[in-house]
């Protein structure tokens, strides 16, 4: 179906103009005032049209544990999380629906789901998330989360001899699984892409990284990992490689223009130069970094070095929401406290570009997504500028980024298909989703993680607490 959006406000170089936009098939076909009407007419009056943002790092199934996971740093938090991760595909499906809806209603048209796999039901897990994303119609980049050493190995040893249980699945079997997932689900033209996604150096062998590089080359897949999120990982890199994780990943050939790296909190200046040189993308997850006490990623330095940066919500148990506008706001102004030179600070228009084009670039889609240009895919969001939270009238993008926009998304198109209209998702029954989420959960406040008890003493010792 085609659309003519009439009289929408769009951002020009540093102003705004009112214009019409044609969406024909999957694409933006024309942008010009007073276009002839084709297809369905959308009244864009007093509405702001922007390219869709990318929620460039999340873990959808964490939704089942939002608001409950203890106040712990990453390593202990993850240990607790894994003790309570849902082990059924129906829950995976529902939390993927929830993640998609919250992303759409906060300006996102694409989501990168670093998906936690249920042991023994790995392909079913992926299939459940893919089904949810297809039903909603959001553009999805499913990055099955893989590792090949057990969780306790992610904590540095220090001067203690540590032994770890072997991981339950071999490196080879893991890579075969991912290749099978690519064969079954990687259909970028249908809006579903599979990424190779070794979780990070802390839990992955070089053999796993190298296997992922091979798959990425063979099928032209993007690569997605966590990188140097915590001080513990910084220590671990030195223990394991005798150099920084960035130096090591460069050495084995993992970093390139298709590689996006979540967090990047603890990098050296020469690491930053490596990210620039390899054209890797940094995914900034400010709320998760605050919640887990990981630190403040040096985002202003990345920008000055020419590193592409975009935003993610991260999973819902370290955020604990999927509000992309909130992540963009905090991820922009947080850095003002790190640099007295206010000329380096991120402006609202720059934030919008980082969230849209920056996200597209990290997924090797900058030629197709991320800006309002004729010929690009119609992944667009129309914001209601008469919403109370965007009044009185000032600078629309300034207020969208710096304010606290509530229910401001009026319409969303993905691949030319309208999937939000009048502020409501039209492709699935959100009331039914709410009912399911309600029925499959309960209110509770306390739980005991046996695994945390087992590792906490060592963690405190090695981190000098
Ligand atoms: Zn993550």
Can you describe what's shown?
The mean pLDDT is 96. It is built from 15 helices and 18 strands. It is α/β, with parallel strands linked by helices and 465 residues long. The chain starts with a strand and ends with a helix. The radius of gyration is 22 Å and the shape is globular. It has a 5-stranded antiparallel β-sheet with strand order 5-15-16-17-18, with no helix packed on it. Strands 6, 7, 8, 9 and 10 form a 5-stranded parallel β-sheet that branches. The chain has a 4-stranded mixed β-sheet with strand order 3-2-1-4, with no helix packed on it. It has 2 domains: 3-50 and 371-425, Urease, subunit C, domain 1 (Roll), CATH 2.30.40.10; 52-362, TIM Barrel (Alpha-Beta Barrel). Helix content is 36%, strand content 21%. Strand 7, helix 3 and strand 8 (139-146) form a beta-alpha-beta unit. Bound molecules: zinc ion. Zinc ion is lined by residues 57, 59, 114, 226, 262, 314-315.
Note the main attributes of this structure.
15 helices; about 20% strand; 2 domains; Urease, subunit C, domain 1; about 475 residues; 5-stranded antiparallel β-sheet; binds zinc ion; 18 strands; single chain; TIM Barrel; alpha/beta; 5-stranded parallel β-sheet
């Amino acid at each position: 179906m085609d659309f003519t959006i009439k009289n929408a406000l769009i951002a020009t170089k540093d102003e705004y103009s009112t214009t019409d936009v044609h969406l024909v098939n999957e694409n933006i076909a024309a942008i010009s005032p007073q276009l002839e009407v084709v297809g369905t007419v959308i009244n864009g009056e007093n509405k702001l049209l922007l390219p869709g943002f990318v929620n460039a790092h999340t873990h959808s199934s964490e939704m089942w544990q939002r608001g409950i996971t203890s106040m712990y740093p990453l390593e202990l938090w993850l240990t607790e999380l894994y003790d309570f991760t849902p082990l059924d595909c129906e829950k995976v499906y529902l939390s993927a629906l929830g993640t998609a809806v919250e992303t759409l209603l906060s300006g996102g048209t694409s989501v990168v789901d670093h998906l936690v796999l249920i042991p023994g039901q790995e392909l079913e897990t992926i299939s459940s998330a893919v089904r949810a994303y297809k039903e909603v119609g959001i553009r999805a980049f499913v990055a099955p989360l893989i590792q090949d050493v057990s969780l306790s190995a992610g904590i540095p040893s220090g001067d203690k001899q540590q032994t770890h249980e072997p991981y339950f699945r071999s490196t080879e079997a893991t890579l075969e699984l991912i290749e099978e997932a690519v064969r079954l689900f990687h259909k970028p033209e249908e809006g579903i892409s599979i990424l190779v996604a070794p979780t990070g150096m802390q839990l992955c062998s070089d053999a796993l990284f190298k296997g992922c590089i091979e798959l990425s080359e063979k099928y032209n897949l993007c690569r997605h990992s966590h990188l140097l999120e915590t001080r513990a990982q910084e220590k671990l890199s030195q223990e394991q490689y005798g150099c920084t994780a960035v130096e090591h990943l460069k050495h084995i050939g993992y970093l390139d223009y298709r590689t996006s790296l979540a967090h990047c909190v603890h990098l050296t200046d020469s690491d930053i130069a490596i990210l620039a040189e390899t054209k890797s993308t940094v995914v900034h997850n400010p709320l998760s970094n605050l919640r887990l006490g990981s630190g403040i990623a040096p985002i202003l330095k990345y920008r000055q070095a020419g590193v592409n940066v975009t935003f993610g919500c991260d999973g819902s148990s370290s955020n604990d929401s999927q509000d992309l506008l909130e992540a963009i706001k905090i991820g922009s102004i947080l850095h003002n406290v790190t640099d007295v030179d206010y000329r380096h600070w991120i402006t609202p228009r720059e934030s919008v570009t980082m969230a849209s084009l920056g996200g597209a670039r990290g997924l090797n889609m900058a030629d197709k997504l991320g800006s309002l240009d004729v010929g690009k895919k119609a992944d667009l969001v129309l914001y209601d500028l008469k919403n109370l939270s965007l009044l009185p009238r000032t600078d629309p993008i300034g207020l969208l980024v710096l304010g606290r926009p509530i229910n401001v998304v009026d319409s969303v198109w993905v691949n030319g298909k309208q999937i939000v209209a009048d502020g409501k998702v039209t492709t699935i029954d959100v009331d039914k989703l709410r009912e399911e989420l309600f029925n499959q959960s309960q209110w509770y406040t306390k739980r005991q993680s046996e695994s945390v008890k087992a590792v906490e003493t060592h963690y405190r010792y090695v981190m000098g607490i």
